[in-house]
Specification:
- GO terms for molecular function: quinone reductase (NADPH) activity.
- By secondary structure, the protein is of the alpha/beta class.
- The chain folds into 2 domains: about 150 residues, Medium-chain alcohol dehydrogenases, catalytic domain (Quinone Oxidoreductase, Chain A, domain 1, Alpha-Beta Complex), CATH 3.90.180; about 140 residues, 3-Layer(aba) Sandwich (Rossmann fold).
- It is built from 11 helices and 15 strands.
- Strands 3, 4, 5, 6, 7, 14 and 15 form a 7-stranded mixed β-sheet that branches.
- Helix 3 crosses helix 4.
- It starts with a strand and ends with a strand.
Amino acid sequence: MKAWLCENPVGVDALQWLDLPAPVLPAGQIRVQIRAASLNFPDLLIVQNKYQMKPPLPFVPGTEFSGVVTEVGEGVKGFAVGQRVAAFGGLGGFATEVCIPAILAMPLPDGFAFEDAAAFICTYATSYHALMDRGTLQAGETVLILGAAGGVGTAAIQIAKAAGARVIAAAGSDAKCAACKMLGADATINYTTQNLRDELKALTEGKGPDVIYDPVGGDLAEAAFRSIAWRGRYLVIGFAQGTIPALPLNLTLLKGASVVGVFWGEFAKREPGRNAKMLGELAAWYATGKIKPVLDRVLPMDQLPTAFARMAAREVVGKVVLTNP
């Protein structure tokens, strides 16, 4: 097998595309021939030693991928050789094959493209869990999506629209705002050139958004929260800007608002039945065309450094996907 190996997490330049021995298949796991893998922001952080999880060295990065089952380990039920699957496995995706616990794999229905499947689980599960479960988004409500042109942001636009909500998409350039409009956003805000609070006041006639979806953090958070509607829900997804904000808690009192943490990975571990049901519903939405991953670029697997450079420059709209022949 071939894989991108990280022996020293000092950055992307230290990764090596190497021939490695095929991993031994443990009980309870499946071996997957990887057809496609997508980049998520933690993939960049982990090779820079900036992520909360510090895997033992050396390791193969790549959290999310799709492919074909080539071997089934002892004790595994529900999977067979030749079956098409997708997985959010944590590590190992930037390679030609990987062994993962069967419980992490999602069977793919017919017609689910490998490239789409590789960009599906993390972003759509996170966004659905955030908006529908934690945020209790209702039809007719207004949702503000920060970082709306990114992987989770584009998924959130589609899910919110499918739920009947009005979507205000906020992004960092006019081009990204235009991409959000094409995905169905009702209005957009370029927060590098426009005042977020002023624009939200005008777009909501002073009421503010009912739900705020925030994977960005940093200096946008307080401005957004000060604009939230009465009984609004502020969804904390992540901190792509790099800074964890400190919100004045008196604002929750004044607005009768809630700050709601969203940790899809932990939800999937603690509530696997509900997570499986959610993934099934999302797969059905994909099959009917309600949702579809936005693919910024599809590149060969050996061009991982190019993909990382695009992500680091914050040029990505949707997700970058890498493929094996």
